[in-house]
Amino acid sequence: MTQASTFETDQDQVALICERHQKDPHRMLDILRDVQDQFRWISRETMATVAGKTGLTQVAVEGVASFYAFLSLTPRGRVTIRLCDDIVDRFAGLPAVVEAFENALGIAVGQTSADGAFSLEYTPCIGLCDQAPAAMINDVVLTGLTPEKVREMVAALKGGKRPEDLISHRFDALSPYERAKRMVKNNVRHAGAVLLGPVPEDAGLMKALAQTPAAIIDQIAASGLRGCGGAGFTTGMKWRFAEQAEADRKFIICNADEGEPGTFKDRVLLTERPHLLIEGMTIAARAVGAREGILYLRGEYVYLRPLIEEVLAERRAKGLLGKAIMGVEGFDFDIRLQMGAGAYICGEEGALISSCEGLPGEPKTRPPFPVTCGYLGFPTVVNNVETFCHAARILDCGAQWFFDMGTEGSHGTKLFSVSGDCINPGIYELPYGLSVRALLEMAGGEDAAAVLVGGPSGTMIARDTFDRKLTFDDLATGGAIVVFSPERNILEIVEYYMSFFVHESCGYCTPCRVGNVFLQKAVAKFRQGLANPADIAYLKDLSATIIETSRCGLGMTSPNPILSTLENFPLVYSAMVKPPKDRIRATFDIQSAISDARVLAKRRSSIYDKDFTK
Amino acid sequence: MSGFSFQIDGVEVTAKPGQTIMEAADEVGIYIPRLCDHEGLRHQGGCRVCTVKAGGRSVAACTQPAAPDLVVENETPHINKLRRDLVGMLFNEGNHLCPICEASGNCELQAMAYRLGMTEPTKFPYLEPCRPVDASHPDIALDNNRCISCGRCVRASQDVDGKGIFGYVGRGIHRHIAANGPDLRHTDAEVTDFAISAEVCPVGCIIRKREGFARPIGERDYDDHLIGYDIEKKRDE
Amino acid sequence: MSDLPKARIATASLAGCFGCHMALLDIDERLIELMKLVEFDRSPLTDIKRFTRRCDIGIIEGGCCNEENVHVLQDFRRNCDILVGIGQCAIMGGLPAMRNAIMHSDEPLRECLEEAYIKGPFTQNKTQIIPNDPALPLLLDKVYPCSEVVEIDYQIPGCAPTGDVIYEALAGLLSGRFQGFEREHIRFD
Q: Which subunits have 3 or more CB–CB pairs within 8 Å of chain C?
């Protein structure tokens, strides 16, 4: 009886959550996030309720619930601990931290304690590589973990403390900014002229409002600004396309789904320059004629949510968002915050739009492109956090000022997130055109044997090419610079990144869904010393197929960890291959293949045990 | 804008504005191999078997709009090699036991392998996934071991039947097609649905009970013809 | 032509049904032409149990379900220049491989044997004993296609392959000009 009544109450509350989001199927991600937060999982009954309220089929709801890593179809602990298992965290001592958690909680990674109090799981890069090992505990993050810290934390949590109390005993009294700063260090190591130096408030927006939309776009185009998320599309052109598109509604979306392992620059901008970001989005809205905006914040940055919400509220109160911005009649623009829920693929423009629409984060078919047919089918500009911030500064200081920084084709400054084996991990704002070597010198990473520029979808380079330049034309990067010292195992790094892509592929298209699994297995063979010389050609051949046939950028770049290390660290592979003896496969292990039967039959092999008793 | 022309493997093809490369090719009797695409259903562009080189770029012919003077490569050794890889991935991703499958001979995956001459030892590992069989429905069974995630049943049910009895769930290699309920019996699936019809499922995943192995060897769809024959014969006419 | 030394062929049937060997006879009268070119060494067709010398071509039917299959296959690989897998069992495990995908548990082999010899709904085994004669080779944890155990050079698809396909392959291999099969002849069943 009590069961039944709880069930009713639970489903009533689920229904209330749906009502809170206007039963809008496009807000499915918000609905399911709220359900997850409240009930710690999404049950079949819940999915039925949500489906009924939003007018979708239950399987459509399940499609969303099962897509995002932070939503769960089985009960999770009231305190869910997500350990960042990025390779940088692993090298920074993660295994000891994991062991400490497992011992303290009495559960293994992937499990939930019997009393439902704790869950322990792994999650890919949470954007805290400069202070690894790091973890999310519900909506707060903890950095620089050590086994001692873990034991203290778990003791406190078991003693009834909230995760927030681990940050500060007066957490609730702190401002959102103070909370963020208590949790995460900015680690700004070098402030440049554009973003991290002194920035006047809304000066760019004020100047933009004195101009025509076309003039704003002309300035952005003249500045040479290119997208800072990684792909490097010309921002001015993107805005112009959206401006020219005829539509009743247009959208500005900020891509704050910074998921490329080793990238954390947007984290710092969101913390230190949230006003500049919103200012940039508002300028974009003015330029293309949009009234609605969405800031898509990755689920891993949920700790920044109160800060962003406060900034949005503050700007609404000041007349910088909402109706008649800065008193300009007819210029209305507002922004909603869309939380992600653990999916790297949502950093892809189309997938991000799908996610904003309440769908699984699957990329969209191109063409049409978002600038003509994006969010809900309306023209949409999607730009990275840094790009919007740059745009605001360009409007303030002028296109020429920006254009004059950097190099031909790569203008302005760029935020680099440096992490891994260096003395000063953190953020470096530098003009484009610097060499990797120069950056390593600044960061105290001169001993590096390998540097991953642009994250796993970028390029891994070796010492002999450290003079290559950080520009769009040479080593393009969304900002990630991961430094690896000589004692690191390149194949271990590559295998980790392939497992990352396997985990993050959306599964829509065959080559990315299946091919990456094959690549991961092939790399594992190398690590185990079971590869043969032909496997090197196999890696290249399979990679080429995946790159050429994949539907979106994920599959088009996922083989890069393999290809760039094959090119720049060929010995790592050739040292691990053995020609097969008598053309018999080294990967087939007769001993393990018959071990079950040996036990079941209670006898030894008359063929193979003789040879192996010596 | 009126019609325009472009080239596929050197053949001049006329297209209407808005047509995809594949639609235009189909009309003139040039077959571009495909698995997730099916006439009358929304284009998905998921299987990538229809990959062609258009203006030097590799694209999915089922979703890529045709364009004036576009030069498309379809049946080249390179493109067919890519397709063999993709079909090989689909074979090794699931559990495809042709000798015992009732779709054998009528199976598009199998027929595609024939067409592409897929007889070399596979370079790929077999993933041998553990997938359930759902025989709960009185008239329909689902053997998910054979599913290639083409999603034709999903679109057929949603767009043609107006039901939505299938959907995609999960992500990455775990993404799969699921019924809109705990099992198929608890959906409003009927054996008369278009989504359940023989033409929608390209493989032997959706099975109509009590009609298996109805056509003997020699009379099945691909016993006498390569897949794509129905389109290619238009060219000869 | 007749002065040339005859090519030596060896064959083996591993975890299969011997159907592919029977299908060799479907070459029909072309078999006479073929026999002018080849000589059979180790093979169930000749009842020769050990290689008498190195062979040009080894033909393998069936996949590997037990240790003896592995042993034979490895022996073939060592003693044959070209190794050809014939039929779906050799190529991808075939019917025996059904146990791979279906028997997912902590003890797949035990479950499989219990299902086959004790619990299966159609099992009639009054002794309730799983056969375990010392002469029986140990089963492998799963059924392996031949290409996972040794390198396979060519495959003749089918279940069983047609006489045409077998002839096409053998004639091609013997002449050193095998270029794959006519697309219209390829069958996986």
A: A, B
C91-102: average pLDDT: 88
Architecture of the domain spanning C7-97+139-186:
3-Layer(aba) Sandwich (3.40)
Instruction: Please give the DSSP secondary-structure letter assigned to residue C119.
Output: I
* Chain B, chain C: beta-carbon pairs less than 8 Å apart: 75
Q: In what order do the strands lie in the sheet with A459-462?
A: A188-190, A426-431, A413-420, A480-484, A450-453, A459-462
pLDDT at A614: 41
Six-digit token pair at A455? 């994250």
Residue B217 has pLDDT above 80, yes or no: yes
Q: What whole-number distance in Å separates Cα of residue A551 and Cα of residue B27?
A: 25
pLDDT digits (tens, 9 = 90+) for B42-78: 999 999 999 999 999 999 999 999 999 999 999 999 9
d(CA B214, CA A574): 54
Low-confidence ranges of chain A (pLDDT < 70): 1-8, 611-614
Domain ranges of chain C: 7-97+139-186
CB contact under 8 A, C186 and B113: yes
Q: Residue B14 maps to which CATH number?
A: 3.10.20.740
Q: Which residues of A touch C142 (CB under 8 A)?
A: 593
Number of domains in chain B: 1
On the question of a cis peptide bond just before residue A367, with omega within 30 degrees of 0, the verdict is: yes
- Percent of chain C topping pLDDT 90: 80
Q: How far apart are the first and last CA of chain B?
A: 29
Is residue B134, in this structure, part of any structural domain at all?
Answer: no
Task: Dig out the tokens for B93 from the structure.
Answer: 């991703």
Q: Is residue B216 part of a domain?
A: no
Domains of chain A: 3-65 (1.10.10), 79-173 (3.40.30.10), 189-403 (3.40.50.11540), 415-484 (3.10.20.600), 490-574 (1.20.1440.230)
- What is the percent of chain B with per-residue pLDDT over 70, rounded to a whole number? 99
Find the domain containing B64 and state its range.
4-75+226-236
ipTM above 0.95, yes or no: yes
A343–B48 CB contact, under 8 Å: no
DSSP string across C84-110: EEESHHHHH-TGGGHHHHH--SSSHHH
Residue A534 forms beta bridges with which residues? none
Kindly state whether residue B107 falls inside one of the protein's structural domains. no
Whole-prediction pTM:
0.96
Q: Does residue B141 sit within a domain?
A: no
Instruction: Give the pLDDT score at B212.
Output: 87
Which chain A positions have a beta carbon within 8 Å of B172's beta carbon? Answer: 502-507, 513
Half-sphere exposure of A251 (CA within 13 A, CB side): 23
Position A9 scores a pLDDT of: 87
DSSP string, A574-609: HTT--PPGGGB-TT--HHHHHHHHHHHHTS--TTTH
User: What pLDDT score was predicted for residue C99?
Assistant: 87
Interface subset of A 571-590, CB within 8 angstroms of C: 580, 582-585, 587-588, 590
Please give the C-alpha separations between residue C158 and each of A569, B19, B104, C21, C188, in angstroms, as whole numbers. 43, 39, 11, 12, 4
Chain B: touching chains (3 or more CB pairs < 8 Å): A, C
DSSP A24-81: -GGGHHHHHHHHHHHHSS--HHHHHHHHHHHT--HHHHHHHHTTSTTS-SS---SEEE
Instruction: Count the residues in chain C.
Output: 189
- β-pair partners for C8: C39
